[in-house]
Amino acid sequence: MKAITPGRPASRARIAELAYRIGIWLKAIDGLIELVTGVLLWVAPSVLRAALAPIVSTDADDRFIRHLVATAAGRLDTGIAAGAPQIIIIFLLSHGIIKLVLAYCLIRGYHWVYPYAIGVLGLFALYQIYAVIRSPSIGSIIFLLLDLVIVALIWREARLVRAR
């Protein structure tokens, strides 16, 4: 048998495949965080407020970390956690469930889900663009760019599957 030497195209393909897999797992983790946050806001908002209080109330020097935590928890601060409006709870629960279902289907390789994943995650990215325009921050921009990269990687994967 002839040994296959990895050339640039094969190496790029492996990197793109690895990035795709990592991106999907990140979406699953993101969905799980949103789901858990939504459930906590629904049934025990004081638990979430207590968990976030040490992080949200840190010094101004830690703004980036504080912003990342608040974004990962659905852009919550102590005021929202104290009495979350129903729309935020519904938003977090629905986003979390949708992301978990999409991530599960993508991890399992269900090809029929690619167009839905691109569409739904694309709509989420459009909302993030609106949020960045309304209230720009480095953390929001980073999360938006990561989501756009994940959408592009899903699109790439869908094209590869169609080509096979």
UniProtKB/TrEMBL annotation:
Source domain of life: Bacteria
UniProtKB keywords: Membrane, Transmembrane, Transmembrane helix
InterPro entries: DUF2127
Transmembrane segments: 24-44, 87-106, 113-131, 137-155
Protein's recorded name: Putative membrane protein
Short name of any one Pfam family annotated for the protein: DUF2127
